[in-house]
Amino acid sequence: MSVKSDMFLPVSTKLDLPETEARILEFWRETKAFEEGLKRREGSPPFIFYEGPPTANGLPGVHHVLSRMLKDIVCRYKSMCGFYVPRKGGWDTHGLPVEIAVERELGISGKEQIESFGIAEFNRRCRESVLRYEADWRRLTERIGYWLDMDHPYFTFDNTYIETVWSLLRKFWDGGLLYQGHKIVPYCPRCGTPLSSHEVSQGYEEVTEPSVTVKFALEDEPGAFILAWTTTPWTLPGNVALAVGADIVYVRVRQARDGREERYYLAKERLPQLEGEYTIEKEMKGRELAGRRYRPLFDFIDLAELAGKKAYYVCEADFVTTEDGTGVVHTAVMYGEDDYQLGLKLDLPQHHTVDPQGRFTTEVKPWAGRNVKEVEKDIREWLRGHGLLYREEMTTHSYPFCWRCDTALLYYAWKTWYIATTRYRDRMLEANRKVAWHPKEIGANRFENWLESNVDWALSRNRYWGTPLPIWRCESCGQDRCIGSIAELRKGQGVPDPLDLHRPHVDQITFRCAKCDGTARRVPEVIDVWFDSGSMPFAQWHYPFENADRFDSLYPADFISEGMDQTRGWFYTLMAIGVFVTGKSPYKHVLVNELILDKEGKKMSKSRGNVVDPDAILNQRGADARNAQEHGPVLCLIREYRRLRPLVPGAIEADAPGSMGALAPPYSGFGVSRLARRLRVDARRARDPGIRGRGPFELVCAPLPPAVLEIGRPRRQAGRLRYFVPLSRNRGPVAGALHPLRFRGASPEPRASGESRRAEERALVRLP
Ligand SMILES: [Zn+2]
Ligand SMILES: [Zn+2]
């Protein structure tokens, strides 16, 4: 061989990407590439990024890979453009997900058992368990090349973090926006706590279950019944009234059933609800029916008698329609918002027939102590046996389930603490219009609609492992006070040392009531865990107790990125807190990714157990996987969301229609490499001025993992190892993809147009 061995390094003809990645990761580790890069950018214009905190009490799934990759792409890109991009990691540590995991470990379930186990020990275990998988998260984060400072993260369970959250709550309190109200809430009987609207919206499912048309016997007309329809037979023992529309036309019909002649009242438009032949005897307006009395449906319970109030009569209500059922609404004031409001207006009895565990109370004799959803069949049987069931049919409707434990939620009258977000809804809408959403539609439609239909934030949770609601109530006179700092808390009696702001320790602290000198104790509730994560722009810096002087340079974020489900989660809670506290949106640019779905097209989540292990995918062998790895997984963000799922290698199952990876036209049947090429072409077309904005995408088409992504090839040149960054527009999909996300107006662009040569120079990260 005449070739000198120091001129050319031996080149393997076999491409082994996992191995290449490992080498590059090792190189980064050795050279502290991330830390070094950050250090070199200090003093440059900042590009502020907020990391949405994951919960580390379970292993990360492949759906976490997607959003982490997107965050990384943008942060690297901006860093290469010359910005200083600090990336502080964080952990979401409180809340039901953690509690449920610990309940399972201990083999206990429900609040009674937790309390007999002991709150102190229970919470100690929650604290211990919550970071159990931190190491796995770190490993995955490193493996996919997501540069994030995980050595100095924020933890939502830290006293300092909680102190900031308290100070924010105090601001709401001082503004008169933190209040306690009796409201109908979506309530999880298993977890024993109400959920907020953004939590509920994550757990709707289509269910098919029997609905019933029930016969309410009129007092003054033997053999005549008012028909009412319901999909929730468990609310029937709580019935106190029947509502009709004043101007709706009702009819009385005669019908022979089971050899008996009976008369039924229902809306004329709803006659098709009747089974078999009938004769219309007369017509009347709803207001003519109002005031007529009927007998309680069940002979064992009389709520009028129990509460000493008038009940069981027909009344007018404006929410009654003839869209479904019989045009008569069965009213159970404790289990529906409209019902409750009507009950307030008419002073109907407010009496729970269901206990907080979702079981019937003792008054509901045949089913006392039993789960209300489980006895619905028995209720139907009872009604049938007593000749009060007109009809039973299967109905498909969308019903909310607990996003954590999958229990069917009940709408339930509950005393809850609220933040009056509706009072500044318009300010949120205004702030949102200044946010650049990618894709735009998410902000202009989905998020805007969400804000428009805003309801007050149901803040409190009747649970254990969470940020305690810092309100102390006087035992004697009921005066409330809200504590906004640790210094203020230390003025109370019985402050434990060391101070832990969690239950039950914080509950030992009492205050003298300023009004009557009585003793004030903390209310039992903790707060919604989403308030924790929504507070992170402030709490990660322990603002205002620290960093108050430089907070302006840390708020708002130039960029955040998470999955689409966060429009009702983190994107919202950031907005609701940020706008109230600072008057402006906490973020300028939001990059939203589609969710990765499982084979059945369902969202991946820990509680469903359908999470795909990213390691398996990242290390996979075999033809498909290799083919995929050649180009890396293709991440796609598209304007028409449902059209294309984000792809990851190993997840492509051509024979499973609807599976993650099955592609809709025009991409169906494409292999990964062809798809990547085609997406690139389409992306380029989409940038063509002639069709700009009408192309199918707002596209990010970027190859993962790091070997291909950021850092082309390490090259030896003049004795220095250089890492080349394919940055320019024409150099591969990464830059092409990132140009649509140029974040105009986010912050000054160090790079002027026409300077691409020099910019590329600057993008070269020279390492010793
Ligand atoms: Zn639950
Ligand atoms: Zn008092």
Automatic annotation (TrEMBL):
GO biological process: isoleucyl-tRNA aminoacylation
Cellular-component GO terms for this entry: cytoplasm
Record's subcellular location: Cytoplasm
First-tier enzyme category under EC: ligase
Family stated for the protein in its record: Belongs to the class-I aminoacyl-tRNA synthetase family. IleS type 2 subfamily.
Molecular functions per Gene Ontology: aminoacyl-tRNA deacylase activity; ATP binding; isoleucine-tRNA ligase activity; metal ion binding
Native species: Eiseniibacteriota bacterium
SUPFAM superfamilies for this protein: Nucleotidylyl transferase, ValRS/IleRS/LeuRS editing domain
Protein purpose: Catalyzes the attachment of isoleucine to tRNA(Ile). As IleRS can inadvertently accommodate and process structurally similar amino acids such as valine, to avoid such errors it has two additional distinct tRNA(Ile)-dependent editing activities. One activity is designated as 'pretransfer' editing and involves the hydrolysis of activated Val-AMP. The other activity is designated 'posttransfer' editing and involves deacylation of mischarged Val-tRNA(Ile).
Subunit annotation: Monomer.
Pfam family, one: tRNA-synt_1
Residue ranges of the region described as Disordered: 741-768
PANTHER family: ISOLEUCINE--TRNA LIGASE, CYTOPLASMIC (PTHR42780:SF1), SOLEUCYL-TRNA SYNTHETASE (PTHR42780)
EC identifiers of the protein: 6.1.1.5
Top-level division of the source organism's lineage: Bacteria
Alphabetic keyword roster: Aminoacyl-tRNA synthetase, ATP-binding, Cytoplasm, Ligase, Metal-binding, Nucleotide-binding, Protein biosynthesis, Zinc
Protein name: Isoleucine--tRNA ligase
Cofactor: Zn(2+)
Catalytic activity annotation: tRNA(Ile) + L-isoleucine + ATP = L-isoleucyl-tRNA(Ile) + AMP + diphosphate
Domain Aminoacyl-tRNA synthetase class Ia: from-to ranges: 24-625
Feature: compositional bias, Basic and acidic residues: 752-768
